[in-house]
Amino acid sequence: MPIIGSFAAGSAGGFGQRKGAGAKELSELGIMILAGGGGGNGWTGSANGGAGAGGMRVFTCQAITYTEPLPVVIGAGGAGGAAPPRSGCQGGDTTFNCLASSGGGFGINPGGSGGGSGHQGTGGTGNIGGYSPPEGADGGSSGGGCYAGSGGGGGGACGTTGSSGGSGASPGGGGPGGPGTSVAPVFGPTQPFYGTDGATFAGGGAGGGYNVNSGGSGGTGGGGGYNTCAAANKGAGGGATNASCSAGGNGSDGRVFIKVPSTNAYTISVTPGTNTVVPQPDGSVIANFSVSGCFIVE
Fold first, then answer.
1. With contact defined as beta carbons under 8 Å apart, do 197 and 219 qualify?
2. For residue 231, what is the DSSP state?
């Protein structure tokens, strides 16, 4: 169960060595910046594109000069398309200490990861922030033919491009969302705050099938399946729908993780209480932000 409060890196919950009231230098930090996923497109009588995941960027060996509480802004997931023309909404950007990632694209639009195409279209481009390495992948394109299904949304970070929908003379099924990316190498394979799909985040949303035919599956990392919302706080894209009068699935809000090694002998706390500070077996702590707040060092 997550432990909420203030913890000193280098201890199992004690109070770290204070280093004065001036600027505090933190080093060797691991940071994940994950934006909100886009919302899936709603029913239009044809195939609709799944939404792209929020852009996902993972950093190692980061340094921070701390003088005052640092704001963390968590990008909101985009709403699924409801009212005509039933387009989903773009995910919100996530920021921390001059680092940022871009919200996921809704159907056919660019974003941190691109939204999947509609019927007989091309998916939106990912990595709208122009980062290297890229923050996300392109959305999938539709298959060819009169009955082609739509593309799935792109996955975040190193996730692959969202897969294309079915094609040909027979009814086309929707494409699956692109898979997300695991944060296990930096933050560990298991944490109490990971949620659905464990350490994998930023799955793309499923594309809808042509007319009333089957939609795709959501990408690993919380991506919404056909007619389904993305898993909470995974920065994933919502699934599209082709069900009459139905809305597309909502994208999910982003996240920020900040791992502070034990060599930084400060007390770390977060606001508000919805966010958590979780001590690790090696003496480090991870600040876990699921809502916007502040990162505090004392």
1. no
2. P
Q: How far is CA 47 from the centre of its chain?
A: 24
234: left (phi over 0), alpha (psi -120 to 50) or beta: alpha
Question: Residue 292: which domain range?
Answer: 7-26+264-297
Model confidence over 57-66: pLDDT tens digits? 999 999 999 9
Provide the residue type at 292 as one letter: S
- Residue 68: inside a domain: no
| Spatial distance between the Cα atoms of 145 and 48, rounded to a whole number of angstroms | 15
- In-domain check, residue 67: no
Q: What is the C-alpha R_g of the chain?
A: 20
Q: What is the pLDDT of residues 104-128, one digit of tens each?
A: 999 889 999 999 988 788 899 999 9
Q: Write out the two tokens for 216.
A: 């795709």
d(CA 22, CA 24): 6
Task: Please provide residue 64's backbone torsions phi and psi, each rounded to the nearest 5 degrees.
Answer: -130, 135
273: buried, middle or exposed (CB in 10 Å: 19+, 13-18, 0-12)? exposed
DSSP labels, 30-83: EEEEEPPPPPPP--SSS--PPPPPPPEEEEEEEEEEESSPEEEEPPPPPPPP-S
Task: Determine if residue 49 is left, alpha or beta; phi over 0 gives left, psi from -120 to 50 gives alpha, anything else beta.
Answer: beta
Domain total for the chain? 2
Pairwise CA distance, residues 5 & 15, whole Å: 12
Q: What is the pTM of this model?
A: 0.91
